[in-house]
């Protein structure tokens, strides 16, 4: 990230300054050592190596700044569309997942960047200092009954079916009073594909839950079935799903699904 690169650059500058000071002190006692090491002149001795690294870091920071500027312009352009805000939120969520944050995988990051257990989110009690764990935005169910999502799955391993169109339909929701942080769901997964000049379609029922704190939908296969799905919502319109092998939870495929309207 930019902050990490900037910190490295500051540290390198500090080391260079220290070496320069040491070189200047030694030059007063020995002019020959100054000629050998070159004091702080780039390209000579340890200080030269550090100066080269600083130049490299500066170049990388400049390129990163340019990339961020271009990305910012692209987001501004997209935001002019009707779905611009949703695309921007999706991009932000993807970056957060790639970079990570200070909270664990099963924790919720409050708006003030504190962390609380995802099991305490949307339970009627404000555990974040700013109350963001109980906000309307946080406690919006992304997988209500009747919601449908579709995408195209390409198997990467544990291949059970040919690459296929996939459709996930939420058939029911249930909330229990003693565990409101999760919405228990039932769903129907349908995969269809063409094979041997014939159209094939397979439908199976799954059940699981939606976790408010992680914005994650977990669908577990019934007995006798081998495939489940874990979907992380990037926004209200998109989710990244991982098809997993039941039991071992081996990742078999990744698919981006889009909400149907």
From TrEMBL:
Q: Which Pfam family would be a valid example here?
A: Eryth_link_C
**Sequence segments annotated as region (Disordered):** 24-46
Annelid erythrocruorin linker subunit C-terminal domain residues are 144-259
Cite the entry's keywords alphabetically: Coiled coil, Disulfide bond, Signal
Q: Does the keyword Ligase apply?
A: no
Task: Report the SMART domains cross-referenced here.
Answer: LDLa
The answer on whether this UniProt entry bears the keyword Coiled coil reads yes
InterPro entries in the record: Eryth_link_C, Eryth_link_C_sf, LDL_receptor-like_sf, LDLR_class-A_CS, LDrepeatLR_classA_rpt
Q: Which residues form a coiled coil?
A: 54-81
Where does the UniProt annotation place the signal sequence?
1-22
State the source organism's domain of life. Answer: Eukaryota
- Which cysteines are disulphide-bonded? 103-115, 110-128
Q: Which CDD domains match?
A: LDLa
Q: What is this protein called?
A: Hemoglobin linker chain
The organism named in the record is Scolelepis squamata (Polychaete worm)
